[in-house]
Design brief:
With 296 residues, this protein is an all-alpha fold. Helix content is 71%, strand content 3%. It is built from 9 helices and 2 strands, in the order αααββαααααα. A hairpin with a 2-residue loop joins strand 1 and strand 2.
């Protein structure tokens, strides 16, 4: 028992809560940017087999991170006694939780439209969720050091993998059309959103019936709680719930498409620069060779 307590205390070590745009946030944002650039540079031309392996290993990593988080949030130490209680508010079904459900499809589904749709979903909506938290963590940081590290690794992984999945396609010899690529991901996003609404209504109803003081708000779009997103929070107050959901879908979709468009433009300009550089190098070599022959 003493050993278990020491292990628990080690993994639930408390530290000062990091601030948004503080040293902790900025250092890890720079690291994530570096790792994203490195992976994209090294793995731009990887095969589908390698992509599947990356997705599988990442999925195993995400499962491990989620298990750690659930253990920390479900178990507390009261003096010498462990206390267990399910933290329903931390149930893993947020937009940023989708790597848990999407990566196995990318790793194991046969090649084709359905698999590519899951890849596109990760490269758009999942990518957006991780990118938003990395840019502005808001209230995701806590006073548990391990949870803060888990948060950064989790959302940073979404950025790194999302950028990699997109780059591998848009830098290929036959890149997909940007709009078609995005549209293929929309049904999956709508499915996740519908599931979140159903869970919010049914689970919260069950928690209330059991008189448990728990908050269940998946995708942060529950009809029973305030919305945490700017603009959408105002819409939710003054408009019917279906209008709020429509605004949410359109808003998240627009931001995801904008992020995808930005990456696609960067890839396009980078490829153009490479072609010009290669052409200039070839021209210079040709000039040197012709000059050498004329001197002979």
């Amino acid at each position: 028992m003493k050993a278990l307590k020491k292990i628990y205390k080690f993994f639930s070590f408390e530290a000062k809560e990091p601030k948004t745009f503080g040293i902790f946030h900025i250092v890890f944002a720079v690291i994530i940017g570096f790792l994203t650039t490195l992976l994209c540079k090294k793995c731009e031309k990887t095969s589908e087999k390698t992509e599947r392996k990356i997705a599988l290993y990442a999925w195993i990593g995400y499962i491990t991170l989620e298990l750690y988080k659930q253990i920390i949030y479900s178990i507390s130490l009261d003096g010498e006694q462990f206390i267990f209680g399910i933290s329903w508010s931390d149930f893993p079904f947020q937009l940023c939780s989708t790597p848990l459900y999407v990566l196995p499809f990318i790793a194991f589904l046969p090649s084709g439209r359905i698999r590519e749709a899951f890849v596109a979903f990760f490269g758009t909506f999942t990518f957006l969720g991780g990118f938003a938290v990395c840019i502005y963590p808001g209230n995701v940081f806590v006073e548990t050091l391990g949870i803060n590290l888990q948060t950064i690794i989790w959302h940073g992984g979404q950025v790194i993998l999302g950028a990699y999945f997109n780059l591998r396609r848009f830098a290929s010899e036959n890149p997909p059309k940007k709009t078609k690529y995005f549209v293929s991901a929309v049904p999956i996003f709508l499915l996740f959103t519908a599931l979140a609404i159903i869970l919010n209504v049914t689970v919260q109803g069950a928690l209330d019936a059991a008189m448990l003081d728990e908050k269940f708000n998946m995708f942060f779009i529950s009809p029973y709680f305030e919305c945490i997103f700017p603009i959408l929070s105002t819409i939710k107050i003054y408009a019917p719930y279906p209008v709020f959901i429509l605004a949410y879908v359109l808003g998240v979709g627009a931001l995801s498409f904008a992020l995808l468009s930005s990456e696609a433009l960067i890839v396009e300009k980078t490829l153009e620069f490479r072609k010009k550089k290669a052409a200039h190098k070839a021209s210079a070599e040709q000039y040197i060779n012709s000059d050498s022959k004329s001197n002979l």
